[in-house]
Structure formats: structure tokens, C-alpha cells
Amino acid sequence: MTASTSDAPLVHAVNVSKSFHGNEVLKGIDMDVATGEVVVLLGPSGSGKTTFLRCINQLETIDGGRIWVDGDLMGYDDRGGTLHRLTDKRIAAQRRDIGMCFQRFNLFPHKTVLENVVEAPVQVKGMKRKAAEARAMELLQQVGLGDKPSAYPAQLSGGQQQRVAIARALAMDPKLMLFDEPTSALDPELVGEVLKVMRDLATRGMTMIVVTHEMGFAREVADRVVFMDAGVVVEEGPPSEVIGNPKHHRTRAFLSRMRQEEQAHAEAVVASVTGNTEALADAPGDGGDDGARDTAG
Amino acid sequence: MSTVSGDRPGPIKARPVRHPWRWVAIAVIAVLVAMMVSSFVTNEKWDFPFAFEIMQQTPVIQGLWAGTVLGTVGSMVLGVGLGIVLAVMRLSDNPVLRGVAFVYTWFFRAIPRYVLLALIGVGVGFLYSQISFGLPFGEQLAGAIGIDTTTFTFFTLDWNAFSSTIWAGILGLGLSEAAYMAEIARAGILSVDRGQTEAAQALGMPPGRTMRRIVLPQAMRVIVPPTGNETIAMVKDTSLLIAIPIINELFFQAYNFGQRGFKILPGMVAATLWYLVVCSILMVGQYYLERYFGRGFGAVPKKAKQELTKIGADH
């Protein structure tokens, strides 16, 4: 694998394994993601999907296997079969073309929205500040926050913060975007605005790997759904198959659990909108209905 | 009693809770203050007019600027700079750097500042009258190959001349301060969420830049309040410069003036008043620094601030 050709996958992961303190979290993951493809990783918590995502851009080192992104072996230099660990600087350079959005947004709280978006293009790419700011304003408009450049992150809602985080990642013109449960920390009524931006990004042809529990998003936007459990890929395919007609019993069990939670979730949202506290009290599960309770009161 | 308009309660006009003990406290304090003021006026040994006179003497003003103020600024610049470097070393992956930082902090926190300054002023000069900067073992090397022994010496410092200047004092106080600042800076760096580093890494920022642009500015919010405390403590510690000995310093000059007039107390009062002025100005500066580094976080809660000040004050 040296140069990337148009039919070579953008992400090529082979037999990736990873342990934390003797606990094997990834047990030989193989995954190819083509340019322009949107892949959704599904699976129960602890299945290794977030860890795998973090391995792609070397936020975690892997113990076995190889990951190539756009033809580059991540984290290592292969000199005639012997691997040499890359310096932190060279790993940083490898990460430039890979954008990432985190569950907790991780915006820089001491910088304004505009400064957040401009930071990496100026500091890492050496872009002129004026040009970077113009580009940042375009991106903020794209995520619907053109009116907030001088706000500090703490003054924004969770949904707005996550959209700034997306704009910040896009400012580096990445070839690949990684999303690590981007809507899990959001109040239910704010999830939609973030998913809309991501859907928009997918239609623009961005290659995306998304860890999420949003089944609606997976069904509509994903080209392929990968179901992981206990560190292995259990089943994968188009969403209509994996979500609509799962083959494996573990996938089926997970999906039925998700469906219950989703229903509870939906009822909580409905209750919050109509102010019907009875429906709220009936809704089982506690996944994210805190926000709904706030607005219901 | 609230007025009622119709059958719905109107605006609240309640009587406030009474605080009789506050009035008692005010009375007690008023009496104490009156006693103190009366003693200022009636006890002539205070001699405030002479104290004010001493405050304005040229040697005292010179001691204030060239000793106390320059000493404080210089040693804090050295202390904060070296302290941050030590903190980064302490948190690095390199075990050698970690060890060096730990030993440094251990050593300089254990030595009283007065003793350290005496060592710099007298002890080092006794051991090494000259300090040369050049190749390690340069003299022996040059001697072995038979050329002038100073060939590999680039710069020579006459320690005995150096040790009587304020720079020796700044060196001593700064080295000692760095040990405390290292701990403060380490706490500050550790207070920054790990997600901040990850976000910067994911954007392709190399580690050094991540530290400078993302982590340290946020750590400053935690570092500044105890550093203000350290600075105020340093103003007072410049009075230890006499251990070197450096006499061009506020307390020695003011005390000296009083002694010469056989009026020791006004000299002490003059120094005290100047220390009060300098520390008051520093407190104003600290307020603005905290506001600058707290941007984007809202106000630092009062409680947290007090906790931090306590941490900084524990030596």
C-alpha cells in the first residue's frame, strides 16, 4: 500500500487488536471504508466501537494489525517489514486530514467560536488569519451559526457547541470525519439540529465513520452499518439488512433493546412538548429524558 | 405585610431578618479602633511624622525600587518561567526529566530562603571564586593537548562581584520560588480536561503547541490566584536579601534610617507602610489578571478561589 488510487479504500484496517490492562477490547477488526462512504458503527457500550474510532486517528495505539488512511500507515513507518514508531510530530501531521467530533464537544473554552474554528488552520496549516477567518465564517454559516462568531462556548447550547465542533473539524478540510457519539450528551430536543448538519455533510460526499445510537440517522444516512459486540464485528451491510433484517441473534437483541429505549425516548419528548406528565411517568428507561423533564416542569 | 389586590397576592414587602449581633460586633470593633487611634495620637514614640519623612528619603525610595520591586519582579519572572518548565518536565513521559523536576522541588522547598541566600552570597563564593562557562572538562582537555587552558572557556563570571548585586538575590529567590511554582503550575495543568488535549491532537496539533496554545492558557485560570499570593509573599521575602548581604533594599534602608536617629520604631513603620502600598497595588493587578484568564468561564466562584489561595499559602 503506497499511493492511493480511486478504487482503493480511504480507510483500510486489518486485524486490529487492542487491550487495556489485559482486557482485550478489540479482537481483530477488519474494516474498509471507501471514499464518500458513510459508515455507522452500532453496538452496546463496551463493544469497542469508540476505541476502534480512536485507533483510526491514533488517539489510542493499537497492539496488533494495521490501519491505513489514504495509503498512510497510521502511527508507524514500515521500513522493509520492520515497524518504526513515528515521532509525535509526524503522528500529528497524519491526523491533519482526519476530523473528529467528540461526545463532550471539547471546544476550547478560552477561545471564542471563531477562534476555535480558526485555531488549527492558522497554527497547524500556517494559513493566513484573514483567509482562515473568512473560511471559518463560511463553515459557521454552513452549520447554522453564522451569527455567533464572538460567543464563548459556555454561552452556547450543547447542540450549538457540537455544531461549532463540526465546523472546527471541517476547517482543516479533512478527507475523513470521525464522530464519537456526537449526540449522546445532548438534550433530546437538540439532537435534531446536529444530525441535520451531519446529514448535510453526508450529502456533500464527506467520508464519515459515525458511532451513534441514533437508529433513524443510521437508517437514513448510512451506506453501511457495522454491528460490533465484545470487540468483534458481528455483522455488517446496508442499513435495510442490518437494522431491518438482522441475521445474528446478538444484533437482534441489541436492536430490540434500542427500539424500547427509542420508544421511551419518543414518549418523553412528546410528554415534554404536550406537558403531559402522565406519559412521562409511564415512560420506562432513563436514557436522556432529563432534558425532557426540565421542559415538562 | 403584603398588600392584597383583589384575591391574588401582590408584590412582597416583607420586613428583613434582624441581626442584633452585628451591632454588637460593630460596637466592640469601634471601641478597639478608638483605643488604637488614641494610642497613635497620645504615644509620641510612634512618631508618625518621622516615619513619613523616612518613607520619602532617597535611599529608602531607591531600596524600594532597586531592591524590593526589582527583586520581586525579577525573582517572580524567573520563578514562574522555571516553575512552568519544571511542571511540564514533571508531567512528561521522560523518566529522567520527571526525576530531575522532582529532586529540584524536593531540594529547594527544603531550604529556608534565608539560608539559601546566605549560601549564594557567602558559601558559593568561598567554594568557587570564579565560575566559567565552556566545554565540560575544557581546561583539562586543553591542558592535555597542550594549548592555552582557557581555549574552551567562553565566559567567566567573577562570583564575588556578582554575589553582591541584586541579580544574585533574584537568582536565589527565583530558584526557591520555582519549586513552589512548579507545584502550582502542575496542579493547573492537571486541572485542564483531558478532552482538550485530545481535541487539539485530533486537529493535528503537535504536543508542544497543544501545551502552549490550549492547555497552559486554561491552566492559567487555576495558576494565577495562588501566583498572586506567591508574588505578595515575595515582596516581603525581599527583606531577606540582607542575608546575601544586599543592603539596597527597603527594610534595611528604612530601619537603618530610624536607627541613626535613635528612633527604631518609625523606621519599621515606614517600611510597613511601603509594603502595604506595594501589596495593595499588586492586589489590583491580580484582579485584572484573573479576569483576563477567566474569560469564557464566567466568574470564578468565590469559594473555589479561597480554596486555591489556601493551597498556595501552605508554606
UniProtKB/TrEMBL annotation, chain A:
All copies of domain ABC transporter, residue ranges: 11-255
GO molecular function (one): ATP binding
UniProt keywords, alphabetically: ATP-binding, Nucleotide-binding, Transport
PROSITE patterns named in the record: ABC_TRANSPORTER_1, ABC_TRANSPORTER_2
Pfam families: ABC_tran
Stretches the record annotates as Disordered: 273-297
Top-level taxon: Bacteria
Family, similarity comment: Belongs to the ABC transporter superfamily.
Stated name of the protein: Amino acid ABC transporter ATP-binding protein
From TrEMBL, chain B:
Keyword Transmembrane helix: yes
InterPro entries, sorted: ArtM/GltK/GlnP/TcyL/YhdX-like (IPR043429), MetI-like (IPR000515), MetI-like_sf (IPR035906)
Cell compartments where the protein resides: Cell membrane; Membrane
Membrane-protein topology: Multi-pass membrane protein
Domain ABC transmembrane type-1: 65-286
UniProt keyword Transport, yes or no: yes
One Pfam short name: BPD_transp_1
Domain of life: Bacteria
Transmembrane stretches, start-end: 21-41, 61-89, 110-131, 264-285
Protein keywords: Amino-acid transport, Membrane, Transmembrane, Transmembrane helix, Transport
PANTHER family: L-CYSTINE TRANSPORT SYSTEM PERMEASE PROTEIN TCYL, MEMBRANE COMPONENT OF AMINO ACID ABC TRANSPORTER
Family: Belongs to the binding-protein-dependent transport system permease family.
Protein name, as recorded: Amino acid ABC transporter permease
